[in-house]
Each structure stands twice: as structure tokens, then as C-alpha cells.
């Protein structure tokens, strides 16, 4: 299998997205290239891992992440079905969980959720945290907000940066306009340029939908078709379907891939 696989918000089809249990399950997949997650800031300036600007969809609370202190945010509960209740994790908690795997080769794609609200100082805070743990080479920073990548580049000239957009042509457009990204992160169904136009770039296509507790579709992606479109990596919700563990603990590719 040539396609490189990332866990989108952790193993987010079988476990609540962006939770420690979803990241723990993803980290156990030895041949997984990396894990993707999203960060925002609390009212008191702490980095937390959550996708939506509001807490309503994923927790038992209501309102905006930015209006909660960390202490109050931690009181919100995330239903994990038969698994223990989860809470919104801090970035420090995620690093504590994943640090060993990150230092042994796994990557972490940190998406800065700053295209709706500009969290002042978020770039500085996350770069400082990454550097303190010595994880610079393990981290990819991504965002839909190109100006944030310019800021990250100024803070850490060696940082690996990726631009998010719906269409791959938009990713290229931002780079042509001066965005310092070296990787493209388009929506997987919006590959609107020929593959030869994308050569030299990691093209990490992201998925959406079919998140826990939605039922799996039971279909499989046709990796060969996606590779022909120029996609090098997939950030998907159920990587464990494609990379499973056999009885000896070694990873094996799962099943026959069907078009999705």
C-alpha cells in the first residue's frame, strides 16, 4: 500500500473525535503515518483540542470554546458509549499521551482553528510547547488561514506548514500568493488540478462526515484511483479498517479496497 494514512481527529469513527481515547487507539496502529487534531484557546489562554468553535455538538454543554475557562471546559462531558466518559483534552495531555510515539517516528498534524476567530497568541503558544518537548520534526502545522502560516514561519523558520482549502487549486493559489506552506491539504473530493501540477508536494487529502457515533458505511476507498489524482496521504476517520493488527501484533493491510 503506497497511500500514507493519518487518523482524522484520532480514530473518530469508533470513538469520539479529538478525545484521548480516540488518540490512544490511533497511536496503537504502528504503521499509521500520523494523527490529525484541532486546537483552540480557552478564555484563560489554554490550548485545548476540539474542532468546532462551539461545544454543543461534541459535549453536553453549550456555547463557544473561547468563552469557557479551562476549569469550566473540563466539567463538560463527552459520551463515549461503552467506553469511559471523555472530556475535552488539553494539548499538554495529548502530548503526554503521544510523546513516545512522536519521538519514535509518528507525526502529528496540528490544525489551528483560527479561520473563524483569531485566537491571539495561539501560534506562539503551540510552537513554544512543541519546542519545549523537542517535537519539532514530528509536527505539521495546518490551517485554512494563510496569514497564520506566515506568522508560524516567522516564529519557527524550520516548521513544516500545510495550507488547508476545499479545492486543491485553492491550496496552490495561496502558495503562489506567498503562503509559505510546503504541503497541500485539500478536501478529498476536490482534486480539481491534474496530478502533474502537484508534483513535489505532499498532498494530504482530508475527509469529513461519518464521525462517531454515526454507523460506518461499510465501503472502502479505492487508493489507486486517489493516487492517480495526485493524493499522497489520506486523513481519514477509520484508519484501523485499512491497517489492522494480526495475532502476532504486526500490522497488515486490511481487505480489498472498493470505491467509495
Describe the structure.
- The protein is an alpha/beta fold and 260 residues long.
- It is built from seven helices and eleven strands.
- The chain has helices at residues 20-27, 70-73, 91-102, 122-132, 146-155, 168-176, 223-228; strands spanning 4-8, 34-41, 47-49, 107-112, 139-143, 160-165, 183-186, 204-206, 233-236, 243-245, 251-253.
- Helix 6 (168-176) links the parallel strand 6 and strand 7 (183-186).
- Helix 1 (20-27) packs parallel to helix 3.
- The two termini are 17 Å apart.
Q: Could you list some keywords that capture this structure?
A:
260 residues; alpha/beta; nine-stranded mixed β-sheet; two-stranded antiparallel sheet; 11 strands; globular; disordered C terminus
Q: Can I get a quick summary?
A:
The chain is an alpha/beta fold and 260 residues long.
Structural class: alpha/beta
Task: Choose one word for the global shape.
Answer: globular
Oligomer: single chain
N→C terminal distance: 17 Å
